[in-house]
Amino acid sequence: MEYLIDTANMTMIEKCVDLLPITGITSNPSIIKKEGRIDFFEHFRKIRGIIGADKTLHVQILAEKCEGILEEAHTILEKIDRAVYIKIPVTPEGLKAIRLLKKEGAKITATAVYSKTQGFMAMEAGADFIAPYFNRMENLDIDAAAAVEFFASMIDRYGYSTKILAASFKNIHQVNEAFACGAQAATVNPDILLAAFAVPSIKKALDDFAADWESVFGKDHICD
Ligand code: E4P
How many A from CA of 168 to the centre of ligand 1? Predict the structure, then answer.
């Protein structure tokens, strides 16, 4: 199981990398918009500096035609680094670009997956990750859990090396459901991940432990 965080916010990335067992960072143009008019390449070079080489960095292209996708992908690889996973929406033009970039040895995250066909085609094209949009599918009354399960069974049956990087979540239940259905990875808004720990019962348990300790040992600590 892998948790990635879906943000381009450097403060949040620093905090999550420090505290949580995350394996990478994803973003898209709407996520980048929240950071204002940043220097795109410099911003992601800094993010790489924070996360180091052992975590994955997934950066999305904007072009819709294959030629433009290739140009943007090459620029990202050149100006950020060669280890970046290029995020490409699964369209016919995107699939062509994925196949060509895979031949060059690039790493690909196939994104904006709303259907089984998009996912299957991206696997066939050689994508390293496919990113089914869990919440957005549910908003359209598409059974996202069934789709993830289907992708997982096809990966098993045919031996694809593609991993499922479930994305687009509005709550932690959806994240857990995606994992239960066979997603190897999920990229989650860090606020949703951190909220999973901001539960009154957890706080109460800690307060009770502290009070019980103090009732016997007073202000003395374990290390005193
Ligand atoms: C991640 O790679 C996706 O771009 C993202 O999870 C989409 O999330 P949203 O549906 O909350 O915009």
Answer: 4
